[in-house]
């Protein structure tokens, strides 16, 4: 009895690993696609699911996703729901950027959405614990104005008391959508110019300095970063923040946005294609693979 | 003789190639190279450069790490191929960890004629077929019998043939670069002073990298520059670790390099060190340039090899 239980957890977590941002990208875009697709099919069988002798890869992905929704709601499912239910319904992708595992302070934000607003989503699934939540949230406010925790609808009570008043709550609902439970308040008191610079890529922070100061400091490569910090520290934090968000929004990729909304893509795959920065060539080969029978 | 043990990574090979300009002394330096990538082109380039100054490389044919693990025939074919092109300064070198390694050595070295043309062995473990191994070694054209320090007493006994070499790993590797802050100056090795007294013809080490094999690498919180030097009183080799100060996250690697480099320059100026690598460090320092972390490793290795060459 115990052994089957342990086994089923192992099989579920193995399946969850494949149905994740990295797992799906590995399967769909690496060289050993057929091997990985076969592996996915085997994992479904191990999880006790009847699979037809010949199944389309897109079906296998759908079945895996549905199975995990019932039995093992890991973080990727929340991220998928955030895109498919929340973002698609409330925002226009052409003016919105989603960031995955974005480093700010000493934490990594699960999902960040920047459009007119800027929001961080910290996902705590039923498989997670509230540990580190406070330090994570503190870090997020160094670069962003609104912070939400995203939790399972059954766990509201568990989290209600461990968050500050301006932190919002979203829940993963019974219908597997993301619903607003408590709106976040804009909180800009902890915005931190150094943390914002550190969160950007080199070309981006140079652009930030240029936009603010009209020039890039003359410094040796070794001194350049510190010189940028010194220069930007003279400006009001809200002005730097506004420019910081504009620069992040330059990462919006209109072509990818278009492609991931095509009906050929399984719901679970859209997000990992978004983060993959899917281009036209990727898309053509992807559709081919999805209709492959294994 | 000194046998620096290197892995076939980009900057380790570059270190060897740049040292050709020193030039390396072909009576003293005999690098050991463990290839880790299936593409051996960069090793060929290094071998061609080393051949011009008469340096012989011991190339590991059964690597323990990387893409070539368990795929030694690729290296054997490579050796035979480049020898046919006239690049003959390569000595097939086998790691002996188990009886399987011995069997592999015996069959391939026999088939390819290495028992007559020359080969080396790196003894990492005592094996059960030790009698047969010694019989084969003592009656064939072995160049270097390289003995790992852990088992040196038992492993070195009974070999009457080949240059006995002591392989040690004096680099005290810390988990994180910032951990070196508590040991900025420590003993490294005195092998070069005593190897001859202990009946070794040569010695070998894993330089300032250590024997542990690490694939790739992440951006570090702290930048570390490791530099070996001769301790004035004892004549032993010590090592200094120059560590950056602002180590709270992994931003601004160039700035951290600058912090560590300031400390290194102060030290080499005070000690009057002028190896090729030290001069390059001075050049980066004067320009405030950041060459990348691979170059930092390259210079650390180059410095160590030059230091030893000048001591022996």
> How many domain units of chain B?
2
Question: Shape of chain B from CA axes?
Answer: globular
- Which CATH first-tier class of the largest domain in chain B would you pick? Alpha Beta
User: Order of strands in the sheet with the most strands of chain B?
Assistant: 1-2-3-4-5-6-7-9
| Helix and strand composition category of chain A | alpha/beta
- The helix-strand sequence of chain A is HHHHHEEEHEHEEHHHHHHH
Number of helices of chain A: 14
Find the CATH topology of the largest domain in chain B: TIM Barrel
Low-pLDDT parts of chain A are none
InterPro entries (chain B): Sce7725-like
Protein name (chain B): Sce7725 family protein
InterPro entries (chain A): Sce7726-like
Protein name (chain A): Sce7726 family protein
Give an account of the 3D structure.
The complex is a heterodimer of chains A (294) and B (312). Chain A folds into three domains: 1-75 and 255-291, no CATH class; 97-182, no CATH class; 193-250, no CATH class. Chain A has 14 helices and six strands. Chain A has helices spanning 2-18, 21-29, 33-46, 57-71, 75-90, 133-140, 156-160, 193-199, 202-213, 221-232, 237-249, 254-260, 267-276, 280-290; strands at 97-104, 107-114, 118-124, 146-152, 168-172, 178-182. A six-stranded mixed beta sheet of chain A has the order 1-2-3-4-5-6. The longest helix of chain A has 17 residues, at 2-18. The two termini of chain A are 32 Å apart. The model of chain A has no long low-confidence stretch (mean pLDDT 93). Chain B has two domains: 1-168, TIM Barrel; 172-187 and 211-311, no CATH class. Helices cover 38% and strands 20% of the residues of chain B. Chain B has an eight-stranded parallel β-barrel with strand order 1-2-3-4-5-6-7-9. In chain B, strands 8-11-10 form a three-stranded antiparallel beta sheet. Chain B is globular. Chains A and B meet through helix 10 of A and helix 9 of B. Chain B: It comes from Pedobacter ginsengisoli. Chain B: This is Sce7725 family protein. Chain A: InterPro entries: Sce7726-like (IPR047729). Chain A: This is Sce7726 family protein.
């Amino acid at each position: 009895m115990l052994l089957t239980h342990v086994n089923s957890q192992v099989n579920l977590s193995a399946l969850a690993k494949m149905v994740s941002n990295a797992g799906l990208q590995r399967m769909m875009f690496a060289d050993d696609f057929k091997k990985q697709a076969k592996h996915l099919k085997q994992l479904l069988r191990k999880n006790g699911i009847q699979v037809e002798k010949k199944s389309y890869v897109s079906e296998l992905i759908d079945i895996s996703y549905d199975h995990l929704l019932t039995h093992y709601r890991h973080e990727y499912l929340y991220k998928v729901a955030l895109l498919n239910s929340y973002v698609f319904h409330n925002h226009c992708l052409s003016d919105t950027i989603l960031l995955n595992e974005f480093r700010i302070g000493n934490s990594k934000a699960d999902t960040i959405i920047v459009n007119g607003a800027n929001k961080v989503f910290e996902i705590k699934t039923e498989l997670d614990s509230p540990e580190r939540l406070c330090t994570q949230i503190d870090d997020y406010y160094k670069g962003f104005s609104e912070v939400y925790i995203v939790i399972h609808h059954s766990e509201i009570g568990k989290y209600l008391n461990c968050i500050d008043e301006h932190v919002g709550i979203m829940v993963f609902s019974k219908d597997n959508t993301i619903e607003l439970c408590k709106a976040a308040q804009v909180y800009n008191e902890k915005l931190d110019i150094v943390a914002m610079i550190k969160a950007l890529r080199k070309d981006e922070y140079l652009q930030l300095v240029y936009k603010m100061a009209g020039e890039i400091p003359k410094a040796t490569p070794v001194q350049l970063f510190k010189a940028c910090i010194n220069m930007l520290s003279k400006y009001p934090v809200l002005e730097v923040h506004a420019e910081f968000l504009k620069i992040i929004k330059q990462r919006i990729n209109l072509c990818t946005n278009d492609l991931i909304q095509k009906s050929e893509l399984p719901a679970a795959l859209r997000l990992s294609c978004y983060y993959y920065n899917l281009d036209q060539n990727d898309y053509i080969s992807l559709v081919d693979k999805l209709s492959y029978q294994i | 003789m000194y046998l620096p043990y290197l892995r076939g990574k980009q900057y380790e090979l570059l270190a060897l190639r740049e040292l050709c300009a020193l030039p390396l002394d072909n009576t003293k330096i005999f690098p050991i190279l463990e290839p880790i990538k299936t593409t051996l082109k960069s090793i060929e380039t290094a071998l061609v450069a080393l051949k011009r100054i008469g340096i012989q490389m011991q190339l590991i044919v059964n690597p323990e790490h990387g893409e070539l693990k368990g795929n030694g025939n690729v290296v054997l074919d490579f050796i035979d191929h480049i020898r046919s092109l006239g690049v003959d300064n390569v000595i097939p070198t086998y790691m002996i960890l188990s009886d399987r390694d011995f069997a592999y050595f015996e069959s391939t070295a026999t088939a390819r004629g290495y028992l007559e043309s020359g080969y080396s062995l790196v003894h990492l473990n005592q094996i059960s077929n030790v009698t047969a191994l010694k019989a084969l070694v003592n009656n064939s054209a072995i160049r270097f019998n390289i003995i790992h320090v852990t088992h040196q007493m038992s492993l070195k006994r009974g070999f009457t043939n080949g240059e006995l070499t002591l392989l040690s790993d004096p680099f005290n590797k810390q988990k994180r670069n910032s951990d070196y802050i508590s040991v900025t100056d420590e003993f490294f090795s005195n092998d070069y002073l005593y190897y001859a007294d202990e009946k070794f013809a040569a010695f070998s080490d894993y330089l300032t990298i250590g024997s542990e094999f690490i694939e790739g690498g992440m951006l570090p919180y702290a930048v570390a520059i490791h530099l070996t030097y001769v301790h004035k009183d004892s004549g032993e080799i010590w090592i200094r670790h120059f560590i950056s100060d602002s180590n709270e996250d992994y931003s601004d690697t160039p700035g951290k390099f600058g912090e560590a480099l300031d400390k290194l320059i102060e030290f080499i100026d005070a000690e009057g060190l002028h190896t090729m690598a030290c001069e390059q460090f001075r050049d980066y320092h004067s320009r405030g340039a950041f060459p990348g972390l691979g170059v930092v490793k390259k210079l650390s290795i180059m410095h160590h090899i030059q230091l030893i060459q000048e001591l022996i």
